[in-house]
Amino acid sequence: QVQLVESGGGLVQPGGSLRLSCAASGTIFSIDAMNWYRQAPGKQRELVATITSGGATNYADSVKGRFTISRDNAKNTVYLQMNSLKPEDTADYYCYAVVRPHSSALISYQYWGQGTQVTVSS
Prior knowledge:
By secondary structure, the chain is mostly beta strands. It has strands spanning about 1-5, 10, 20-25, 30-40, 45-50, 55-60, 65-70, 75-80, 90-100, 110, 115-120.
């Protein structure tokens, strides 16, 4: 079993910055993709950013140039640096990871964190 624990959310003024972290723990041999999603009230969950084990990244158009995803494979941790925050970035942010539990495992498993709230307001 694997647990993903997010941290770093909070209240910030428009134009401000926050850094989210998500640490994975448990039975982990390797982690493939690590993603950040967000869900605003009354809206569907959307993909914000992705990063592969090799460090390739991809972003939603709405956050390109403002958000940066990174990971520390030694710590099984993914980060989301959020700059120039806007009120429309207000949402619950969720970490997602695809985990291979053992070297001999034939399949990988998907896990979600519990979410961390980000509120952008003056």
